Amino acid sequence: MRLGHKGWVAVDAVAEERLLIARDVHGVVGDNLSLIAMRAAVANHLRYEAGLADV
């Protein structure tokens, strides 16, 4: 199958859109993982402060 100019423009547009979506998903996942790690650290600190670190 041979693509003309319009076909390659469409292929490039799809690839660009996939890249934008991938960047957005990467950012959202990274932000959520950072938030989970921060909450876990705070919870661990609060347990330590409450004297429950060994429980």
Textual characterization of the structure:
By secondary structure, the chain is mainly alpha-helical. The chain has a domain at 25-55. Helices cover 82% and strands 0% of the residues. The chain has one helix and no strands. The longest helix is centred in the middle third of the chain and has 45 residues, at 5-49. The mean pLDDT is 93.
Shape: rod-shaped
Report the end-to-end length measured between terminal Cα atoms: 66 Å
> Over the alpha carbons, how many angstroms does the gyration radius reach?
23 Å
What is the chain-wise order of helices and strands? H
Count every beta strand, where a strand is a DSSP E run of 2 or more residues.
0
Helix content: over 70%
Tell me about the biggest sheet? Answer: none
Mean pLDDT over all positions:
93
Strand content: under 5%
Q: Please work out how many helical segments DSSP would assign.
A: 1
Low-pLDDT runs: none
